[in-house]
Amino acid sequence: MKSDELFALLRRRGVLWPSAEIYGGAQGLYDYGPLGAALKRRVEEAWVAWFPGLSHDYYVIEPAEILPEAVVRASGHLENFTDPEITCEQCHASFRAETVLEKVRPEGVDGLSPTQIAEIVSARQVRCPNCGSAALSVPRSFNLMFGMDFGVTGKERAYLRPETAQGSYLSFARMWDVGRRALPLGIAVVGKAYRNEIAPRQLLFRMRAFTQAELQIFFDPATFPVPFDSVRDERLPVLRVARRSAGEESPELVSAGDLAASGGLPEFYVFHLVHSFRFFRDVLRYPADRIRLFEKSDAERAFYNRIQFDIEVRLESLGGFKELGAVHYRGDYDLRRHSEGSGRDLSVTLSAGTKVLPHVLELTFGVDRNVWALADVHLVKDGERTIWRLPPYLAPVPVGVFPLMAKEHAAYALRLSDDLESQGISNRYDEAGAIGRRYARMDEVGTPFCITVDGRTLEEGPDRDTVTLRDRDTRSQERLRVTDLVARLRPALVAPRPRRA
Amino acid sequence: MKSDELFALLRRRGVLWPSAEIYGGAQGLYDYGPLGAALKRRVEEAWVAWFPGLSHDYYVIEPAEILPEAVVRASGHLENFTDPEITCEQCHASFRAETVLEKVRPEGVDGLSPTQIAEIVSARQVRCPNCGSAALSVPRSFNLMFGMDFGVTGKERAYLRPETAQGSYLSFARMWDVGRRALPLGIAVVGKAYRNEIAPRQLLFRMRAFTQAELQIFFDPATFPVPFDSVRDERLPVLRVARRSAGEESPELVSAGDLAASGGLPEFYVFHLVHSFRFFRDVLRYPADRIRLFEKSDAERAFYNRIQFDIEVRLESLGGFKELGAVHYRGDYDLRRHSEGSGRDLSVTLSAGTKVLPHVLELTFGVDRNVWALADVHLVKDGERTIWRLPPYLAPVPVGVFPLMAKEHAAYALRLSDDLESQGISNRYDEAGAIGRRYARMDEVGTPFCITVDGRTLEEGPDRDTVTLRDRDTRSQERLRVTDLVARLRPALVAPRPRRA
Q1: What residues are paired with B403 via a beta bridge?
Q2: What is the pLDDT of residues A135-175, one digit of tens each?
Q3: Distance (Å) from the C-alpha of residue A56 to the closest C-alpha of chain B?
Q4: Which end of chain A is more exposed for a tag (fewer CB within 10 A), N or C?
Q5: For an interface test with A, which of B29, B57, B62, B72 has the most A Cβ atoms less than 10 Å from its Cβ?
């Protein structure tokens, strides 16, 4: 499906829609409806089970979304978190310089100064993408943070966090103090980040308010031991800088062992790249051949990132590979800057007595983008209808409970529905229409299992009652005891966890 | 425990701490550590199971936190969401007028104009609460919303939502369209709200960023049927306006039936008041004799609220009753204002053909305040130690898994820990120190169940292995089969749900 068609479908189903719709919408803001909110929550839970699940020493915290000015000054966001912006003086539309130069400079404008961009605009006689006018402004650096007055004086400024990571860095000292005082120490945050994008577009891919899931792993640069043998033979679809320079866009399969041995990447980095790849392939179940691990070059990545691979997935709706997550080796940049900014030395003394300023390995994940990708990849057409083949533990409504005939079987089915809820199995009761239509409705919202109560259920004795269980993907039905339902359903509804390191 | 002592304890344990602590903190902002974030999440989940669980037609959505200016103009927040503020011209401290007048006017300043407040300050020769100076400024209306530039032009303004409710109102039309097109329809939001408080104080009770859980029930004012008989005999601890006027501060027990029959309250209102009361008593397990349902007078409640009872709980740490939730009957205010503001008629046509502008019943809940209250009420001292007697389904770490002796039993216990996780039972593995100390550590963080693997476990045959299960509150230990663990633990770890209406 094309992007517009998919969005229209999701909107019609109440998965998501433009925020403040009745006021004509608010650019770059979206609301999640009941199905979307449930799906998003389950994606977040699956991420938490997987990434913080990598170690007993990785924790999830919930820091505030508002940052005092001193924090974003130290982090560099106040100065550098900018995007070159160009306004058309004819039609008054604003654009990212990258968009204006899309055709003449497809490799983007990263690393160019406003002056250099202005020269290209002039030399190539670039025109407004909207009205075609040549009256384009000189580019200016536009800071993407939302700033606001904090407190009553009008003198204090604060900012909505442009990334969740800052909360982890700010909390490192406290987490060290209350914890085991050992490295590595992981601090994860799942929450909103905010960017005043110049030109929000591509729906959930450039939003002004969006949800990130990020794990910051603080480690001793001298040693970050990982059980590398457990991943050594995993073959990763990498697209490295050298291969890109040769004009290739498709990845090649390289084993983790080779990436570390001859590929020049540290084992700890490759280990986490493997686990990130596995999350996309095994948990979100994107087909392996639609995933590539895209290495960023020196010019493309932020100056403090020493190594960066984006995890990209090919999306039909957006016509190409899109970044859905990444693994950044950020060195000591973050704790060094906050040590300087706060005046508090964030280096720690290890049990061996050595003092070290921890380095950071950052695993990032765009929650909204992945909600979109889960629709793009798993929503398949079946004639007039659609089936949303979501992994069962991500389904907004994991179970449907139906009486075959409302009149006769409703009481039993309602009791069963409540009973499943009280055992933590979320479900939807539905008695409306023919059973085939009810299956179809649940297929559309991605429900993997439907339970039907029928005449036989009521005839059987206590503890021997049976129901049918219908599988979304195979459409097979089996008869099983009500008392066995929970044990049967539960394993499919818990998101996978990695073997712990 | 006093407030400071309790906060110091929670901070030491990594439950929560001031945000941006290494920068000296940011007034009114707090970060939740691992235990706090987990507790908060479970409180939110319990709220969702209970309130949206009241009906099949109540849904949870996740709308954006940023509101365009047109929305807050229509809702009245741009004009009216203000607090009178007074600055001391000597020491430059800012205060809410209510705080400055605390001693001379304990009933507060609701409904007074800045001029009236200025007259009281002058007549009573009120002085600065901070430095004692008489140089107090004339009060000004200070808008509590955080406003910011939206987009690149500098002309468009947006605001952080001051309450989650607006997202539900804005989504009503879309939810009507995608749903059953019937009333009542409930739309719930759990998420952040933001207020630029003049003087944040009392820790989690007046924050600048905080989490609300709110359910907006849209209903036909002509009929809002509820199964009132199911609550008729519930006796509620109410403190009504008439009783308050007589100087009483303690509630009296009145049955739901009497409140509706002779008390002049609509049955739909009392029904939801009962369910709110039950949530605080039965789910959060605040002792019934510390709860009161505090009716707000005409002068105290917002002008659009027709009926308002705050649910208050007596907290030792804060020396009195504190509002932790409320039930507001808001009439048609919200949809009428947004119909006018957006130009879209938000009235709906019911199946009978009648056209109606729905009324709103709002159930509110302060998540952070309740996290605090759960510490205040359930954290009890036991000699040098503390035991956090949280309801099991709210415990940040519901289960502890220990090997009796690390050397011999660790492998089995680790496998059991992973196995429980894969069945959705969150737990912490601990092998450090004597078993009694491990129990004590788990008692402190509120873990209700500890499982110990010992010599006997390993001796028993497949499927017959047993472990000990220790209960936090009774300290009793029982021996049970590993295969029976999940079935035994699960019911205690799922938050209660109400009988559905």
Answers
A1: B453
A2: 999 999 999 999 999 998 889 999 999 999 999 999 999 99
A3: 8
A4: N
A5: B62
Tally DSSP H helices, then E strands, for chain A: 16, 26
Q: How far is it, in rounded angstroms, from Cα A95 to Cα A100?
A: 7
CA distance A393 to A43: 9
* Residue A192 and residue A344 in contact, taking contact as beta carbons nearer than 8 Å: no
The mean per-residue pLDDT over the stretch A306-311 comes to 98
| Burial (0-12, 13-18, 19+ Cβ within 10 Å), A258 | middle
CA B70, B344, B364, B177 dihedral sign is negative
Buried b (16+ CB within 10 A) or exposed e, A150-180: bbbeeeeebbbbbbbbbbbbbbbbbbbebee
Q: List the single residue in A with minimal CA-CA distance to B491.
A: A423
Could you read off the pLDDT of B125-171 as tens digits, one per residue? 999 999 999 999 999 999 999 999 999 888 999 999 999 999 999 99
Decide: A293 and A238 in contact? Cβ < 8 Å: yes
Residues of B in contact with A38 (CB under 8 A): 60
Of B30, B64, B148, the CB nearest to A29: B64
Q: Chain A partners of B26 at a C-beta cutoff of 8 Å? A: 64, 66-68, 150, 158
Length of chain A: 501
What letters, b where the CB count within 10 A reaches 16 and e where it falls short, cover B377-399? bbbeeeeeebbbbbbbbbbbbbb
Residues of chain A in contact with residue B12, where contact means CB-CB under 8 angstroms, are: 178
What are the residues facing A30 on neighbouring strands? A18
Q: Which two tokens stand for residue B407?
A: 């050397």
Type of residue numbered A176: W
The secondary structure element, H or E, covering residue B159 is strand B157-160
| Identity of the residue in B34, B148, B151 whose CB atom sits nearest the CB atom of A147 | B148
Could you report the predicted ipTM of this complex, rounded to two decimals? 0.95
Among A22, A91, A346, A393, pick the best mutation site for testing chain B contact (most B Cβ within 10 A): A22
Per the CB < 8 A criterion, the answer to whether B61 and B175 are in contact is: yes
The verdict on B195 touching A (C-beta cutoff 8 Å) is no
A364 with A214: CB under 8 angstroms? yes
* Alpha-carbon span B145 to B65, nearest angstrom: 12
Chain B CB contacts of A85 under 8 Å are 152
Domains of chain A plus CATH, in order, are: 3-81+144-377 (3.30.930.10), 390-493 (3.40.50.800)
> At residue A202, what are phi and psi to the nearest 5 degrees?
50, 40
- For residue A65, what is the DSSP state? S
pLDDT of residue B500: 60
